[in-house]
Amino acid sequence: MTVSAQISGDTQKAEPTATKTEDFVPPYPFRYEKMPPVWSLIGMAKRNFLSIWGVDDFQSRLRSKKIFTRELVICNRPDVVREAFQTNHDVLQRKSPQMRHALQPLLGDGLFISDTETWAKRRKVVAPIIHGSRVKGFAPIMIETIEEQRADWASQGEGAEVDALADMAHLTAEIICRTIFGRQLGKDHAAEVVQGFSDYQRHIDQVDILSLFGLPEWLPRFRGRAIKKPVERIMTVLDKIIANYEAQKEKGEASVIGGLLEARDENGEPLSREAIISEAAVIFMAGHETTANTLAWAWFLLSQCDKSRTNLQAELDTVLAGRSPTFQDVPNLPYTKAVIEETLRLYPPVPILAREAMADTSIGGKSVPKGSLVMVVPWLMHRNPVLWSKPDVFDPGRFLNPKSKKPNKYGYVPFSIGPRICAGLQFGMTEAILSLAILAQDFELKLKDGTDVQPVARLTLRPGENLPMTLHPRHS
Ligand code: HEM
Asked: Hey, is 356 helix, strand or coil?
């Protein structure tokens, strides 16, 4: 029996576990058939942004809804996604007011939330520093950090309970800290940076209602002092780390901060200290929780699906035969990669990509007035039944089977698409593949009995606040 695919009750339950031959449908929030009134949608959005979508939203191509004064346009097929994010980039490059308000106190004019000249300038400087061609240089730091996680799990023994979400967050934060700041400085300051960022995240609103209503930018957003403290804390640590780095110049090792300090724009000018701090904050923020959530979801999905877990273990045992992987092994682990790709399809860490129209434009023949909110929602498009067969089923094989129905690159967008595509795509994929390969070689993780896992979207999509699982060494 497949886990029931019926859409009723509040959620899709993760139990019972699928066996070797069955389809596994992991949990998703209830999808309504008849749209509730706007005020109740806003209440739902504040609790969990994923619960506002009805059955029709998944199947649609292009939809628009007016929420008070603001037009909301949702692009849900490759042709309109391409038009919005590629062809119309000039007009639709600005992040949504919600995103900008949430992150501006922390990221300043950093790449992630800037636009027009500032974005173009920073993108040119920052993207090459974390580009795919540099990942080989970062891989030894990744592997060393993952090995530490493996040793930590090994020390805990059979049946030990872990919070897989917290462990993956710790792992990816360590990796990004050590790659940004260099091994030693990263090690020394990781805990402080992580604490500052998670304090910050706790204080920012999930849904900025004022912006959704189209109210003006200058209206205060009532978060004031609570957010000031973690920002000051993060800025102070980053400033200290940069000063230390300049004093020690950790030479001979690839580090992002070294790249930022040495970078020159087309006029030969270096980045200002504030710009370096902003971009270091961007890379930390953009690069750690996304990968952590991906890995946590992958552990959950594998724990529920015998077939995929067996396939993964078979690949790791055959290709690696007990040794630790290196960067060179990554292309030889196609099933491991497919598990990550399928996880990113079902639970895209950034489930909504939203832009504000900077001028009047049109998409798919529909006029889009200046100020509209244009959204590409990977959560919807990755489960659009027109684009995917059995869209709610976890099936890594769909990324390997040349006959399976795969949409083009504008239909699968966990890293976004167009000129603003994730600058750390190769970094994130390599990190996720190596982490899963090293850890799944030695461990199986089982969901703790009685745990109800549900996807919750805040800034990123996560399996709730924690993910209790038990550790089972494979070769003891
Ligand atoms: C599985 C891991 C990751 C996922 C799913 C992911 C996803 C994304 C997405 C969807 C965006 C665009 C957001 C938007 O348009 O609103 C983005 C932007 C970005 N990401 Fe990633 N990311 C991941 C890992 C990383 C890593 C590891 C780094 C850095 C080392 C990174 C650096 C960035 C940067 C700098 C941007 C801003 C690009 C720009 O605006 O020009 N990401 N990422």
From this structure: strand
Site residues for ligand 1, CB cut-off 6 Å: 95, 111-112, 123, 130, 282-283, 286-287, 290-291, 294, 344, 349-350, 353, 414-416, 420, 422-424, 427-428, 432
Map tokens 């990324």 to a residue: 399
Q: Mean pLDDT, to the nearest integer, of 63-71? A: 85
Residue 464: which residues within 8 A CB-CB, separation 6 or more? Answer: 165, 453, 454, 456
Task: Report the alpha-carbon distance of residue 198 to residue 240 in Å, rounded.
Answer: 19
Share of the chain above pLDDT 90, in %: 62
The model's confidence at residue 214, banded by pLDDT at 50, 70 and 90, is low
DSSP strand pairing (70-75 vs 373-376) = parallel
User: What CATH number is given to the structural domain containing 403?
Assistant: 1.10.630.10
- The answer to whether residue 39 is domain-embedded is no
Residues 443, 142: contact at Cβ < 8 Å? Answer: no
Residue 431 lies in a domain: yes
Q: Quote the domain boundaries for residue 115.
A: 49-473
**Which residues, listed in sequence order, are joined to residue 473 by a DSSP beta bridge?**
443
Quote the number of domains for the chain.
1
How many Cα atoms within 13 Å fall on the side-chain side of residue 323? 7
Measured distance CA(133)–CA(326) in Å, rounded: 16
